[in-house]
Each structure stands twice: as structure tokens, then as C-alpha cells.
Amino acid sequence: MQVNFNFILLLIVVGVCVWLMMRVNRPLKEEALKLTVDQARTFNREYRNKANRADMPAEFRAVAEASDRARPVTIGAALAIAASVAAYILIGG
What we know:
By secondary structure, the protein is mainly alpha-helical. The chain is built from 3 helices and no strands. The protein has helices at residues 5-33, 37-47, 61-91. The radius of gyration is 18 Å and the shape is elongated.
């Protein structure tokens, strides 16, 4: 049985990206679990957008900071996974 180097490289990239997304989302999850259901709905409805945070209550500050840190890393990791899968398919896996 021949070992496909491209498939192994794909698994490594996907594994590292998933690990990175889980690691960066851990503080967001911990802060979000401190909120009640109504507080979480209020944050998601009113303060998810950075432009609306001027009058944000202090209880949402930690969730907003964790969300701001997690969003670009999650998007970048998802794009890296998509690009590596596309490259694997185009190369002919």
C-alpha cells in the first residue's frame, strides 16, 4: 500500500487548524457560559457588531473581547482548511 504524502499533509493542516480554532474559542466559550440566556441573547442582538459597543454594559466586556480575538483566527483557519482541501482535490489526491 502506497502512502499518499498529499493526503497526510492535508490531514496535518486540517488537524492543526481545527486545534487552533478550538484553542482560540475556549476563552469565548468560558466567558459566554457566565451569561444567562437573556444576557446572551441581548449581546448577540445588540452588541455583536463593534460599532454598537459604545454603551455596552461591563458584564459583556469580557465576552466582546474574547469574541474579537476569536473571530479572525476562526475565519483564517476555516479559509486554510478550505484552501488545503481545494489544493488536494486539484492536485488529484
